[in-house]
Amino acid sequence: MATRHRVVIIGSGFGGLFAAKALRKAPVDITLIARTTHHLFQPLLYQVATGILSQGEIAPATREVLRRQRNVEVLLGEVTGVDLATRTVTAQSPVATYTTPYDSLIVAAGSTQSYFGNDQFADHAPGMKSIDDALELRGRIFGAFELAELEDDPVKAARWLTFVVVGAGPTGVEMAGQISELSRRALPGDYRRIDPRDARIILIDGAPVVLPAFGSHLSEKARQRLEKIGVEVRLNTMVVGVDATGIEVKHADGSQERIESICKIWAAGVAAAPLGAQLARDAGAETNRAGQVLVNPDTTLPGHPEVFVIGDMMALDKLPGVAQVAIQSARHAAGQIKARLAGQETGQPFRYRDKGSMATISRFSAVVSIGKTNLSGFIAWLMWLAVHLLYLVGFKNRFTAIAHWAVSFIGRGRSERAATWQQVFARNALKKDD
Amino acid sequence: MATRHRVVIIGSGFGGLFAAKALRKAPVDITLIARTTHHLFQPLLYQVATGILSQGEIAPATREVLRRQRNVEVLLGEVTGVDLATRTVTAQSPVATYTTPYDSLIVAAGSTQSYFGNDQFADHAPGMKSIDDALELRGRIFGAFELAELEDDPVKAARWLTFVVVGAGPTGVEMAGQISELSRRALPGDYRRIDPRDARIILIDGAPVVLPAFGSHLSEKARQRLEKIGVEVRLNTMVVGVDATGIEVKHADGSQERIESICKIWAAGVAAAPLGAQLARDAGAETNRAGQVLVNPDTTLPGHPEVFVIGDMMALDKLPGVAQVAIQSARHAAGQIKARLAGQETGQPFRYRDKGSMATISRFSAVVSIGKTNLSGFIAWLMWLAVHLLYLVGFKNRFTAIAHWAVSFIGRGRSERAATWQQVFARNALKKDD
Q1: Of the N and C termini of chain A, which has fewer Cβ atoms inside 10 Å?
Q2: CB-CB neighbors (< 8 A) of A424 in chain B
Q3: Strand (E) positions, B142-266?
Q4: Membrane-spanning regions, if any (chains A, B) (predicted)?
Q5: Do A421 and B36 make contact, defined as CB atoms within 8 angstroms?
Q6: CATH T-level fold of B5-35+77-113+271-342
Q7: How does pLDDT run across A124-160, given as a tens digit for each residue?
Q8: Which residue out of A136, A174, A181, A416 is catalytically annotated?
Q9: Which of A55, A66, A392 to mutate to test the interface with B (most CBs of B within 10 A)?
């Protein structure tokens, strides 16, 4: 029996998972290699960080999602290199290094948080890209209220109760909104010495608007709603320094200001996984400033029609780093592979169909932009709810997520506040002189 | 206004939480100090480790549970010392040390895993006492299957697929049973190279029976059931060595054997929190080999009628380290404080009412011992289900736990398999020569 066409997929995010699914009926053997064992529904990470959902609900095991698709195997591994000449991928497991050959390769390793060259910010302002990040932030956010409760000095208590979110894209807006909900709705009554409603939530962005991708009307609506629920929105404001107990910002007029805050969250920038730069270098291709690979219009790596670079890792038509771009480019790559195997013409450019954008600001309030239609408020929130339920992978995750949403949105509780000793104690330790 | 009687409670487990609740209507001001922010329902930790429940479901925030009880404040802190002379408790937060005075003190800091003097075992065979432990074990258990899938060498694959549980009390039995369910029911179909049903689950105990507290009839039933679901039960077997890739055991006849296994779980012994020994020393009291304080019959520290040592920390009438002992001794201590404040006679001995014991072995199968009544099988499992739902704290945890149980017991999935990169990658790394 001749060996079937071998497809290796790197990554288990929206790009990797949907590429595998799109090849379900193709005459190929697929190996999906990813550094985590789960598919992560990143748009809801902020709900794990703020205690609404459990990690399992947004992170089903990749192999479980694909268990019935017999032409795919899922391997744990961090891909450390791709040899374009011999067509092999080298990956590292916790115990060994292994090499897997491919005929076609789909690179969907996604993106990491970017601190724009200031990696030292990361220790003090964690990003929001993984379950580890979300659990770390859960420990820091709930821990901040715990430590404010213990603080006799009102100045020090205030800096525990000042939360700074950097970046006013969907992740930052949703995070700021949820911290506000926590402090205004979920936590009052739980404390005896502090009033959680005294918490300040500051949302910072260098741009002049929040949610720029949504257009000026919705941006303004979102800003108003954020301010109504108590979020201080600071636009045209650049972050120039971050340390254990505060953040330095620079205003448009050039003046600088220090904000005392211990719990800071970085939702400002992303960079493509480093594998992108490595591939581009080997192929003689280019990357942009975010480390994304300048791919051909059909999402292939220049000079390598057998290698597709998709989702957050590709630079193409200034497409945004959202789930739909990853999903659609994955389907495009899968379609190209199927066409090639069927002897059909390939090389068709990837065309992105914008299905719209949505972001929740607080419970019952969201903004939705679909083509020329702009919606905000409760109806938009219902649409957000429906779409997110639909895209949550797997029946059982939808089932339990609804239970958790009912607890938080109809009730005002948080089912998943539990932060461990490690997360609360170890992560909130300050040095003596802080 | 005179200061009210101040009660300090150390610990937020069954002892600490139920002591606080029992003082709900008492004319006292309570400060509950605990090193975690949650009340942990320890009997279900094994379900967090094996992907059935989320951590939030068994660990509601202590301050949320007590939010309506206005005479209690909850503080985060690890108690480092008690000054019996000045009647103060010193605790450490992540950032500072603080001191709290008491008129009455209830010490309910619980127990830690004990390796019987072999603390070096801990790195290779984690215990099951905290959410951190359960999440670590989740990463190791699911990680073992992932790494077996990557292993070409069948001998090395086999040691990933050999799970050793040390200790055949309820925790060990339930853990072994659940790993068996994972390998036999939940995971087959997810893998392409290995068959999870090949996993060996070995349950080891130095005693001649499993679940000795349940009596010989149920012990035998439980052993039969375990063997039926594929657990190898090795009794009269002592652990004499544990390393990264195996465990050394000694049989009753003196012969030794090495079992190759990477994922090992320690459910063998507990020791009282070290605070017990410190208190005993300061009070001139004694501790037993497990570090429990030999208390007076009324659970007070000898010479200190204002200090109660309860639950897992007290040595009294050879009571077992179970939730009911903690709950009932907490209520007794609270009752003594109330009686004293009311000017009534105190010093009544604590009388434990044995409400019975139960342990699940697999879905639909449990053993229940209540007085002279012994039950096993499905009816016993329904009783287990009812009691655990009843004791899970808080409506919303019951609500979502039912959803998760339905997924795992009616279905065969695991909602909470998600182990993070940290948990899977970092925890399963072996050294080069292993």
Answers
A1: N
A2: 36-37, 76, 94
A3: 162-166, 200-204, 231-234, 238-243, 246-250, 256-260, 263-266
A4: 375-393
A5: yes
A6: FAD/NAD(P)-binding domain (3.50.50)
A7: 999 999 999 999 999 999 999 999 999 999 999 999 9
A8: A174
A9: A55
